[in-house]
Design brief:
The complex is a heterodimer of chains A (348) and B (275). By secondary structure, chain A is α/β, with parallel strands linked by helices. Chain A has helices spanning 26-42, 57-65, 84-98, 109-122, 233-245, 254-258, 289-295, 324-337; strands at 13-17, 19-20, 23-24, 46-52, 70-75, 102-106, 126-130, 132-135, 142-148, 153-158, 165-169, 186-191, 202-209, 222-226, 249-252, 279-283, 300-305, 318-321, 340-341, 344-345. In chain B, 31% of the residues lie in helices and 25% in strands. Classes of the chains: A alpha/beta (348), B alpha/beta (275). At the A-B interface, strand 2, strand 3, helix 1, helix 2 and helix 3 of A face helix 3, helix 4, strand 7, strand 8 and strand 9 of B. Strand 13 of chain A pairs antiparallel with strand 9 of chain B, so a sheet runs across the interface.
Chain lengths: 348, 275
């Protein structure tokens, strides 16, 4: 390992910030918001750890602006993008050296790949996909709360005897702190010199970026979905138009996908995607248990259906019993008039 | 090529009904099934067997009843089934489970490729696959949506990540966890079911594996569940039932304002770079 580590305190709270092409991803700021509360409860520093190469000072500084006391940036060409073995090896070495008491990462594809292998190497307890993290006052231990059995139960978990206490946290489940220009903190850059840690049995051949694909519905803050009640493919277009206005993800029930109105990446439910948006609008969807399993942790659910007995109304926060063919066009028009474009009110 | 597919037997959660009084899921009397996401791992192995020739061993850690899941896998076309069962495994978390499974894989002589489902639908963690790879010290690829037949000692695969599709090359032996997009799992054939009913399932316990007793079961698990709650999933929302054009207009107005309120509150703090 390289020199310059003297200033890193032990027993800190660490968050793992992800970067893509040198830009810190939003999940890093969300984790800092979580970590800030934990670090303050424990009276220890909050450290943002990021692996990459050629990381710009202003990017690292953003982590301080959003709540970090320290930033530890580990750089090497072979850390440019995420690969399981180099990232696991480097983090394992850092954890051994600096002994954080808590290490949290986002439950992204990267986090959900890296953290389990790191937990095995560190002999640490790892709780996946947490929706809540808190310090237990009596013991100072981290209590990790997460859904299980398809969201049917909420489990609270601790790792009493192993350190660090590791957890992955759902993206978008916490808002980043406001950027604070007055915050102070230190940035520690480590040039990775131990090349034995950087070997990888996996090589990236190519990355095909995909924009606006159905895969995005899992990250969308608003999802508008249509079901069999649309009756025809062209009426499903009404759903797409509303989704577009709200800059929302486009979802579909299994029926709508089976009928060919949209593709499988848009399917929401047990055999499709499980989503947890801030707002879920279901039109022409009756709400089978399989569908509800995919959406029930949404913050707010809106339902439109002609059948007053439809199951979807049992878990809706707001619903209208009526025809989506009449309601959606009127709704879209009214939202446009109210200036709701791209999911936010048009600025005055 | 030797392929090992670890699978799990889980309660059938798809058929769950809602208790109208408590608003929670009724979990009693559920059937035990192969973890649905493991069917995609089995199918991936079977496709490789067809295209490149392979011997598939399906393996499960669980109570004796888990033999049922193993027979389903045999009925789909897997060649051999191994049940890893021991009362001392009870209460194992993902750390202990991945230790037990990796030792079993070692005991069976290893594999060129270990294929796992993305996660189990009861535990929902997705941690065991990467954990096994860490114990075995082999490379691993997660969220795999395409797995090509090996070319020599490497294979090509595609991963679905937030940015898009990542094309990778992995050294073998290696491990892959696969997503639903990879294939449609086949149904067992009648002949397959017959053969599965008669097949001998090898049963292995902790002693045969020479496991460290401090690393298995509840005692060997770094995590502890301290509380379980059943969240109420029903909500008491506002449901409008407009009669006639005027009431419909009012209803749409209320909904538009409700949505606008939600939309305004979803504005994220702007940050540099992609999210």
């Amino acid at each position: 390992m390289a020199a310059g580590n003297a200033s890193m305190e032990k027993n800190a709270v660490w968050i793992l910030a992800e970067q893509s092409a040198g830009h810190i991803k939003t999940t890093g700021f969300e984790l800092l918001a979580r970590g800030r509360g934990l670090a303050d409860s424990l009276g220890v520093p909050l450290v943002a750890v990021v692996l990459g190469c050629r990381l710009a000072e202003q990017e690292l500084d953003l982590l301080i602006r959003h709540g970090a006391d320290r930033v530890m940036a580990v750089e090497h060409e072979r850390l440019e993008y995420f690969l399981p073995e180099p990232y696991t090896n480097v983090l394992h070495a850092l954890v051994r050296e600096h002994a954080p008491q808590i290490l949290i990462a986002a439950a992204t594809t990267e986090g959900r790949t890296l953290m389990p292998s790191l937990a095995v190497r560190c002999h640490a307890g790892l709780t996946a996909d947490c929706t809540a993290l808190a310090i237990e006052a009596a013991t100072g231990q981290l209590v990790q709360t997460r859904p299980a059995i398809g969201g049917n139960i909420m489990a609270s978990i601790k790792s009493p005897d192993h350190r660090p206490q590791m957890a992955t946290v759902r993206p978008h489940s916490e808002r980043p702190l406001a950027r604070d220009a007055t915050r102070t903190g230190s940035i520690l850059r480590i040039a990775m010199t131990d090349e034995s840690l950087l070997g990888s049995g996996i090589r990236r051949i190519a990355l095909h970026h995909e924009t606006g694909s159905g895969a995005a519905i899992q990250d969308a803050e608003i999802v508008v979905a249509g079901g069999r009640g649309c009756k025809k493919a062209e009426h499903f277009g009404l759903i797409a138009e509303l989704a577009s206005l709200l800059d929302a993800g486009l979802g579909a029930s299994r029926d709508a996908v089976d009928l060919g109105w949209t593709g499988y990446p848009h399917q929401v439910g047990l055999s499709g995607k499980t989503i947890s948006p801030k707002l879920y609008i279901a039109a022409g969807i009756s709400g089978s248990i399989q569908h509800l399993a995919g959406i029930k942790t949404s913050e707010r659910i809106v339902a439109i259906n002609t059948d007053p007995e439809a199951q979807i109304f049992k878990i809706a926060d707001f619903g209208i019993v009526g025809s989506l063919h009449e309601i959606i066009p009127r709704l879209t028009k009214r939202l446009r008039e109210l200036g709701v474009e791209g999911g936010r009110h048009a600025e005055q | 090529m030797q392929i090992i597919v670890p699978i799990k037997q889980v309660p059938e959660t798809a058929d769950v009904a809602m208790d109208p009084v408590s608003g929670t899921m009724i979990r009693e009397g559920l059937r035990a099934v192969v973890n649905p996401l493991d069917l995609y791992a089995i199918e991936t192995a079977l496709m490789l067997k067809e295209s490149a020739g392979a011997r598939i061993t399906v393996l499960s850690m669980g109570p004796p009843a888990a033999a049922k899941a193993l027979r389903e896998a045999l009925a789909m076309g897997c060649d051999e089934a191994v049940l890893v069962t021991d009362g001392r495994f009870a209460g194992s978390d993902t750390w202990a489970t991945s230790y037990i499974l990796s030792e079993t894989i070692r005991h069976l002589g290893g594999a060129d490729l270990v294929i796992c489902g993305e996660r189990a639908v009861d535990g929902d963690t997705g941690q065991v696959g990467p954990g096994i790879a860490a114990w075995l010290g082999i490379p691993f690829a997660t969220f795999v949506s395409r797995l090509d037949a090996p070319a020599g000692s490497t294979l090509r695969a595609e991963r679905l990540i937030e940015e898009g599709r990542e094309e990778i090359e992995m050294d073998l032996p290696g491990l892959a966890t696969v997503v639903k997009e990879i294939a449609v799992p086949r149904l067992p054939t009648l002949a397959g079911k017959k053969g599965a009913r008669r097949a001998a399932i090898r049963s292995i316990g902790a002693d045969e594996l020479a496991l460290d007793p401090g690393m298995i079961g509840l005692k060997g698990s770094p995590t502890r569940v301290i509380r379980i709650e059943s969240p109420k999933i029903t909500r008491s929302g506002t449901i409008l039932k407009p009669q006639g054009e005027e009431e419909l207009e009012h209803a749409v107005e209320s909904l538009a304002r409700y949505i606008a309120d939600c939309a305004w509150n979803t504005i994220s703090v702007p940050a540099a770079g992609a999210s």
